[in-house]
Write a structure and sequence with these properties.
Layout: H1 3-9, H2 29-38, H3 43-57, H4 65-74
Helix pairs in contact: 2-3
């Protein structure tokens, strides 16, 4: 994982499916766990989904709050 990956969680939206358009970092834990059981897609999307699940599972979603605040301030 690189620091840029955390930034991607609050800037990259889910490109398809039930949560299309929602930021990867905002996807529900149950959806991420379902993806883990099904198998994450290949490439960057799969890596971001797995990272988001890891943060959710370990109660670390708060790490994204400063990144979200910085993104809001930049608007």
């Amino acid at each position: 994982m690189k620091p840029e990956d955390l930034q991607s969680l609050v800037t990259v939206a889910m490109p398809y499916g039930k949560y299309q358009g929602r930021l990867i970092g905002d996807l529900p834990g149950a959806y991420l766990a379902w993806y883990a059981r099904k198998g994450f897609p290949q490439g960057k999307l799969g890596m971001l989904l797995a990272l988001s699940l890891e943060l959710d599972h370990n109660g670390l979603r708060g790490l994204l709050d400063p990144l979200r605040a910085a993104r809001q301030a930049a608007r």
